[in-house]
Amino acid sequence: MLDLKELTQAVGDLEEELVMDLLNEFVKASPSEPEAQEAIAACQAGMAIVGELFEKGDYFVGDLIFAGELLTESINLLKPVLGSGADTVAGTIILGTVHGDLHDIGKNIFKSMSEAAGFEVIDLGIDVAPELFVKTAKENQGCIIGMSGVLTLAIDAMKETVEMVKAAGIDAKIIIGGNPVTKEACEHVGADQYTTNAAEGVKICQEWVA
């Protein structure tokens, strides 16, 4: 049967070939849905290792992108075992890089990790106008709104978006993420939480829907 620790370490070491070999063998053995969930959890644990190594300076942005792609590839391989997932959706996250910012690396990594954790993610893309966040959130009441930004100007766009969401009376938790995001910025923007780490961001969202 699948060695979960070996899988975690393989993801952490970015050993794509080994990860795919382990998962292909696993899928061939007709695992149950709970076993497939365990495999995804092991992959997520590997992503946490990647995050730690990135923070230490051992991994770089290119490694983060590769890890995000590897996680997406792993999830896609396991999706048939997981069934439709309709009865296991943890919640809905509306995600986008805010108006004026065109960066999407962090957003895409967070998206992959959120989907692996069972969330339905509505990805609005980059340079997203506040009005689009509001419109989509209205159509998905009770959702989580995730806003990403790398440029300093993103903070103002986040603040504008949060103000419009609140003015529209939308029931949504709001998390912001990206390089310029700090505790002070979060308070200034009016968001519920902030993160500069995709794995931590997913944990926050999981606590909100628990």
UniProtKB/TrEMBL annotation:
Metal-binding keyword on record: yes
Keyword terms: Cobalt, Metal-binding
Chain ranges passing through the membrane: none
Annotated GO MF terms: cobalamin binding; metal ion binding; methionine synthase activity
Domain B12-binding N-terminal: 1-90
GO cellular component: cytosol
InterPro entries xref list: Cbl-bd_cap, Cobalamin-bd, Cobalamin-bd_sf, Met_Synthase/Corrinoid, Meth_synthase_dom
Protein name, entry field: Cobalamin-binding protein
